[in-house]
Specification:
alpha/beta, 8 strands
């Protein structure tokens, strides 16, 4: 089979695997609340048959600033109500949504995951990993990208673009390409930054490292020379960011991504203790136990995997016994994590044994060392600037996915070089953890969709959620005419009661976490009765009915 035909067959085969796995999920339930906001926006765009992402707001006349909008993080931009993190992805998805609904839009994250796998293959070839197909399949199926391929989030597209940009940077700084390749790398990083803000950090840090550390036939004589080699990257990055800013201002009247990036940067000097804890969580967290037990068990898993991959590359009975014992320990610890059901694994290392293999084995070859350093160097800045508060409910450290995937490529190549037993062991470990992630997404999507169906079927005149992200989680069920509100503190609850009173509402269902209790009255509304509802997997809520006296 020719190389081109093999590439086409492999890409189609991986897409078919993703398509089959996606059938396990309910597309109305998602991996996170950001996806729910996107699904609500697509539904709104479909309703008014345009690219206008305005969600609308039934209580606009009573709540002008939108502090009670049912979908948390909805912003008022001009006369629009917008809950958008990236316009390019939504605009690309809109035709797919018109053709095939929510299942059709999943083609975008699947294509992003395929692009990530192809970029991993290209990097593996440049590291001396043969034809790179081992890396293609390993990254495509045995890393967190397999989970993000099945959810309408922008992570797989972002990592695909960033890894492709790294491929171009390697070619340029190893003198296999000229400045135009650097321009393309910058453009890819810029396109990734329209979806993932951390792409800016990876672009700056990796380009700077490449300019100073990659060997070149042209000797690096000065800082000016390094800047000259990095200038095309900066130009390509800036051009795409400027184009996206223009698109946002034409479509929304304001710059969305720039505002998000600026807001995130402004909070970077916040509570460093919180950021340090979240950094540990997104590295070795299991999101199952209280700290520090959660970190201890996550760290133990990582150490066990390191011992496994280090042992399988050696010969002798002692090495085999060590590998068997370490593998058993890792298996037991993962079993403890999932003993009472599936859930998030937020650590980039605990969710990706291939990345652990990169840390354990990637230091014997200079090319692998350079890529591993490029993967690790951006971490402090990403930890400093990442969105605070979302470290636990995520899979595989979504802010540092690029680091994990670069390390996974290093790990696959190093394991292959060590021999087939090492490669198979690392691949099987990765597949096992990814299978848990795919199963978790299936459970979560069905639970969220079923619970939201029950909530909508109640046909309450109005709904007031006291949990910030609950209604956004079920964004696929959002309708601008439904009298839903979200209040996150006592002051907003009082405001919500006034809005409901002024709107002439006589019946409202109030949702809060089970066990918190419900007051006998909310202003003129008197409690009538309560029911329990599991709106999120494993999380019980109380739905209390109130009637206006």
């Amino acid at each position: 089979m020719s190389s081109a035909r093999r590439a086409i067959v492999s890409v189609l085969a991986l897409l078919c695997v993703y398509g089959a796995l996606s059938l396990l999920n309910d597309p109305r339930g998602t991996l996170g609340t950001d996806t729910g906001g996107k699904l609500a926006t697509l539904r709104a765009m479909d309703e008014h048959q345009s690219l206008d992402p305005d969600l609308g707001y039934w209580a606009e006349r009573y709540d002008r600033d939108g502090s009670l909008h049912p979908l948390f993080y909805t912003e008022r931009i001009g006369d629009r109500w917008v809950n958008v993190t990236t316009l390019p992805m939504l605009y690309a998805a809109y035709p797919l949504y018109e053709l095939g609904g929510l299942r059709a839009v999943l083609l975008l994250p699947m294509l992003g995951a395929v692009l990530t796998a192809l970029a991993a293959r290209a990097l593996a070839r440049r590291l001396g990993g043969g034809d790179g197909w081992w890396a293609f399949w390993a990254v495509g199926l045995a890393t967190p990208v397999a989970i993000y391929a099945l959810d309408f989030w922008e992570h797989s597209l972002g990592t695909g673009l960033m890894l492709s940009a790294v491929v171009l940077l390697v070619d340029m700084f190893e003198d296999r390409a000229d400045w135009r390749t650097g321009l393309g790398a910058g453009a890819l990083f810029g396109l990734a930054a329209t979806m993932r803000t951390e792409a800016l950090v990876y672009a700056v840090v990796i380009a700077a490292l490449a300019a100073f550390t990659y060997p070149s036939r042209r000797k690096l004589r000065s800082v000016r020379d390094a800047i000259g080699r990095g200038a095309p990257v900066a130009i390509g990055l800036g051009a795409v960011l400027l184009a996206n800013q223009v698109l946002e201002r034409i479509s929304l009247g304001d710059g969305l991504r720039a505002a998000r990036a600026g807001g995130t940067a402004a909070k970077a000097a916040g509570d460093l203790g919180v950021r340090a804890r979240e950094a540990v969580t997104t590295t070795i967290g299991l999101s199952r136990f209280d700290r520090p037990l959660d970190w201890f068990l996550g760290g133990a898993i990582v150490i066990a995997i390191v011992l496994v991959v280090r042992a399988v590359v050696r010969t002798g009975d002692a090495a085999r016994r060590l590998a068997a014992v370490a593998l058993a320990v890792a298996g037991v610890l993962y079993a403890i994590r999932f003993a009472d059901g599936f859930g998030f694994i937020p650590g980039v290392l605990t969710a990706s044994p291939l990345a652990v293999a990169g840390v354990a084995l990637g230091w014997s070859d200079p090319r692998g060392v350079r890529l591993a350093i490029a993967a690790l160097a951006p971490l402090p800045l990403v930890w400093l600037f990442q969105f605070s508060g979302g470290a636990g409910p995520q899979w595989g450290g979504r802010y540092v996915l690029t680091t994990g995937l670069l390390l996974a490529v290093v790990g696959v190549v190093a394991a292959m070089r060590a021999g087939r037993p090492a490669a198979i062991t690392v691949l099987v470990l990765g597949l096992a953890v990814s299978a848990c992630g795919v199963a978790w997404l299936s459970v979560r999507s069905h639970d969220v969709a079923d619970a939201m169906e029950q909530l909508v079927a109640r046909n309450d005149e109005a709904v007031l959620s006291l949990e910030a992200h609950l209604l956004r989680e079920g964004g696929a069920f959002y309708n601008g005419d439904r009298q839903w509100l979200t209040a996150t503190n006592d002051h907003e609850v009082d405001e919500a009661v006034q809005v409901l009173r002024r709107a002439g509402v006589h019946h409202v269902a109030v949702i809060r976490l089970a066990g918190l209790g419900s007051p006998a009255a909310l202003g003129p509304f008197q409690r009538e009765g309560s029911t329990r509802l599991e709106l999120l997997p494993g999380v019980q809520f109380t739905v209390t009915s109130y009637e206006r006296t």
